[in-house]
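sorry for the late reply, my laptop died twice this morning and i had to redo everyting from scratch. anyway the thing you sent over, i finally got around to it. pasting the sequence first so we're on the same page, its 175 residues, then the predicted structure underneath. double check i copied it right bc i was rushing
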Amino acid sequence: MLRHLGASCAFAALICLSQGVCAQQPAPAAAPAPTAAPAPPPPDYGAPITHEQALAAMAAAVAEAKKMNTKMSFSIVGPAGDLVALQKMDGTSNATPDVSQAKARTAVLYRRPSKTFADALAAGNHAFMTFPHVITSNGGVPIVMGGKIIGAIGGSGGTGDQDGQAAAAGAAAVR
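ok and here's the structure:
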């Protein structure tokens, strides 16, 4: 029996070798995918936003909200997340001041727009949900001057995109 098994194996090997194919050939190695350059680190913190700068940001954000015919609240915080200025437009929801502060704090404490977290959540990333002071909604924008974060503005009362647009207008007004 062993003699027949050995002869069968030898015969099978002979057939494979005579045809030039013994096993499935591996696929050619794909070229490595180009790696994206890592995102630059967020800006460092600078001196805290002044009251005058906060008022300029607030005025620009309110003007943007009025252009969109939206009633909103805006909060401006310093680099540590402390409240510097707050404005609630007439007729907006009573929840909006707290939400706008939370969005501003998220933006300044994590040195990125709060929309970053909303986008990550939409992509299925939930790991950051254990972080403190994270709002996963558009409308919190860092205020950067001279390459340094001096504070952040948060807007609430419109849609997420409206909140983000008005807050971005406020942040851009600080010089």
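DSSP finds five helices and four strands in the chain.
thats about all i looked at so far, will dig more tmrw
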